[in-house]
Specification:
single chain; alpha+beta; Small Protein B, Chain: A; 3 domains; seven-stranded antiparallel beta sheet; five-stranded antiparallel beta sheet; 18 strands
Amino acid sequence: MARPKPTVGVKVKTVAENRRARFEYYIEDVVEAGIMLTGTEVKSLRKGQASIAESFAEVRDGQMWLINATIQEFSHGNIFNHEPKRQRKLLLHARQIEKMHTAVSRQGMTLVPLSIYFNGRGRAKVELALAKGKGVEVSLTTTPDSPDFRNLIEVRAVMADGSVHSVAGTLAGTRQREKIVDINGFDIDLLLAEGAVVTAYDPVAMPAAARRLAGQPIRFAANLASAIGDADAVVLITRWDEFRTVPRLLSQLPAPPLFVDGEQPDVVPVREDP
């Protein structure tokens, strides 16, 4: 008598969960994705040594990738042990990838991993959600006759204290390069014309951003301290653990800069102008 096949999609052992995802996002759709792993990564996963709390997924060149997920090095690994935060390819059908890519690019959706688990066949899977951030609104304005730019995308976020923050961007020039044009109503071009310098720091996205923003008036810092050391204003738009020290670092400066924390605007220090 043939042995029954395990049901695909059943979570036999969950090894990592993003518990905050359902509080921070509206979950629109969920799919099960395979994930390409090395041998030491599988062994670490079986011990539950993984975290996806700060991770996300993105589509590049028609492929889906898991970004910033942490799988700790295997305790008995050798020189061929894996890199804990390396980017890992997710396995989905082409039509699923295209559907999700369209939702992200046109509707402002986000790809959020909800869990990593082993199914009934002993294979590692990722529960991947197509989600929309709570309190975030994305709008697209098209103006064919505009002398500056034809398409403007604005992201507006309503924070816990009721305050509203917005960022607007477009594709500018003949090469259609990404360009931030407005932050909370302030015209970026006017600030740059007055001599403002924009400095960015992101340990994961910086290499790709540097390539895509080549030629733009922006510099990239080598570390967090150098990014905020002489700043007049600091805007924090990520929840990664490394950036939780920003308020403390700013409080130690002789003249703390203006500080906008996108996650906790009610507790951030604000410099008083003379």
